[in-house]
Amino acid sequence: MKNQIEELEKNLQILTAKERENINYSKKFACWAEEYKFEAQKVKIKAKTIKTKIEALKNQLNQE
Questions:
Q1: What is the DSSP letter of 10?
Q2: pTM for the complete prediction?
Q3: Chain centre distance of CA 18
Q4: Residue 58: CA atoms inside 13 Å, Cβ hemisphere, count?
Q5: What top-level branch of life does the organism fall under (predicted)?
């Protein structure tokens, strides 16, 4: 009986450690997702800026 209790306590410790590890990974992935979202937003802004410059140059060419 004592061995069973010790075994169950050991299993509980392992599960608790795995749970903490999974929570940490979840937090990391959430952080990475936010970083990628931010980077994507920066790329979108740069692309819009380039499109605007292209349009301005096209307009300038049409006026010449």
A1: H
A2: 0.58
A3: 21
A4: 6
A5: Bacteria
Look-up: residue for tokens 């605007």? 52
**Whole-angstrom Cα distance, residue 31 to residue 19?**
18
H helices within 1-64, ranges in order? 2-63
> pLDDT tens-digit profile of 4-33?
999 999 989 999 999 999 999 999 999 999
CA dihedral 25, 28, 29, 31 (to 10 degrees): 160
d(CA 33, CA 20): 20
Residue the block writes with tokens 């970083």: 35
Coil, strand or helix at 1: coil
Encoded tokens for 62? 């049409």
Residue 23: CA count within 13 A, CB half-sphere: 6
